[in-house]
Design goal:
Elements lengths: L1 E12 L4 E8 L6 H9 L3 H9 L2 E8 L10 E6 L6 E2 L6 E2 L4
Antiparallel strand pairs: 1-2, 1-4, 2-3, 5-6
Length: 98
Amino acid sequence: MRALRGRVVLCEALGSDSLAHVVVPGSVPLSDAQVSLAHDVDETVEIEDLARADSATLIARFDPRAGVREEDEIELGVPPGSLLFYDPETGVALRPTR
């Protein structure tokens, strides 16, 4: 299992679960294929934004008894296939095409 380290910036108590918004530092350079595709659909602004991104915010679900608090530095275990991605503008889930 891989792990990500980050800082909790917001906690939401939901009764049986707690959601923690975790800022994870780091960025991955865009591949040539990603840059080419973005140019094909004329999204130059988004390419520039992605190239400058130096962190990402993840939302992790915890048992409320875990005691996660804002400003905590935590390590998240990430089982393969457990990450979900959403369009930041529409909120629509991004799913792989088959």
